[in-house]
Amino acid sequence: MSSWNNNNRYHSESSYAPSAPSLPDQHQQPQPHYSNNNNNNAPSNYHHAPPPPSSNYGSGYYGQVSSSSYSFPQGTNPDVIRTFQMFDRDQSGFVDDKELQQALSSAFHNFNIATIRFLIFLFKDPRQPLRIGPKEFSALWNCLGQWRGIFERYDKDRSGKIDPLELRDALYGIGYAVPGSVLQLLLSKYGDGSGRRVELGFDSFVECGMIIKGLTEKFKEKDTRRTGSAKLSYDEFMSMVIPFLVSYD
Amino acid sequence: MSSWNNNNRYHSESSYAPSAPSLPDQHQQPQPHYSNNNNNNAPSNYHHAPPPPSSNYGSGYYGQVSSSSYSFPQGTNPDVIRTFQMFDRDQSGFVDDKELQQALSSAFHNFNIATIRFLIFLFKDPRQPLRIGPKEFSALWNCLGQWRGIFERYDKDRSGKIDPLELRDALYGIGYAVPGSVLQLLLSKYGDGSGRRVELGFDSFVECGMIIKGLTEKFKEKDTRRTGSAKLSYDEFMSMVIPFLVSYD
């Protein structure tokens, strides 16, 4: 039984996850208030005022089909342009998965290739093969910058790792009140498989954040009345989910 | 717009995917009949008589929570027991991801570790960490045997690869009439990312098959009236989907 349906507070616009995380410097960080049902692990019980949506968060399946032109958006940080040009070794105007892995590792964190392919799928022009052009590269770069700010804000003990409670608070801080059971299921995918407490590095944190954000946004598109429920056809359901499955190749 | 909703034939029990693929020797293989709307790439337009469901297909999220006892089901092939014992090197009564990778590679195909972790998640006792006991090992072994039979049946040119049309026919043959758009989306996750025509080896074929089967079964649990649509809460949706996301670690 869904906790949404157990909690009338969740049948309101303001208590639903917002359409996108805001930029770190725009974050509202409400102190979580718990309900009186002693289910303190369920973020669904938060009273939650979501932050304002961000407009420049990703592309591709996020709705905006961006064309991979060879130009960067106006005002793109010159370092981003230089990095793209440095790693677009064949001057194709695109970076493929391996080039992107090197580019992001130089500036952010060492991402494994499966994660890189996942990021490309989230940001690429759907008409393109597994590669991104300047616009998508710039959007991805900005997005990772936002996630890095969020990571640093919620890694309170500066351990370079986010623990499950910090992850829950980080997602909540950007407007995603994710039920504890859902987070637990997601986190069971990480770690060494021993069942020991999971701590997420930046790369896994970004994956978790993008999975929660992306799936929630997809669901919201179908839950137009913000009831916490949506009627989906089989085709819609499959088409919503499959983009979040990585290639196992 | 979902092709289910465009096609009244799909508002019937018999045209929905069955609850599980049958054993290869039980397969009905109806010849696809296309509707007259010239949408010949859409399996949703098949008239489809699903085969009878199989009862011994997997465990874990398939609904039956199987306990990891140290005993094999009665009638387990001695080769399966020997293989389990051979790769359970620490005699723990369980095989972990790396042990399973070696065991399956010795008998079926070289699966990459992400695929192995995915298979474990599908079959393991949810109360267990990332490892499986004799019962789950036996169920997984039987399941892979079924998929191998299906693979060999539909790899008509004996190329050792399944092309997109062969995949569509294979899924249809075991009762999953998957819309072409959904298969195309799934296949875009495979291959070298160049956008060239994808051909699936046995490991990718098993992944695709289990993703389609698993997600379809999950959806069907919510579509009790077999209308091709289901009302899902946010929590239900997230909990249905997350098990199909692999760990990127």
UniProtKB/TrEMBL annotation, chains A, B:
Residues 75-110, 142-177 form the EF-hand domain. InterPro entries: CML48/49/50, EF-hand-dom_pair, EF_Hand_1_Ca_BS, EF_hand_dom. Residues 1-60 are annotated as: Disordered. Residues 26-48 have a biased composition (Low complexity). Keywords: Calcium. Pfam families: EF-hand_6 (PF13405). It comes from Lupinus angustifolius. It comes from the Eukaryota. GO terms for molecular function: calcium ion binding. Residues 1-17 have a biased composition (Polar residues). PANTHER family: CALCIUM-BINDING PROTEIN CML48-RELATED. This is EF-hand domain-containing protein. Coiled coil: none annotated.
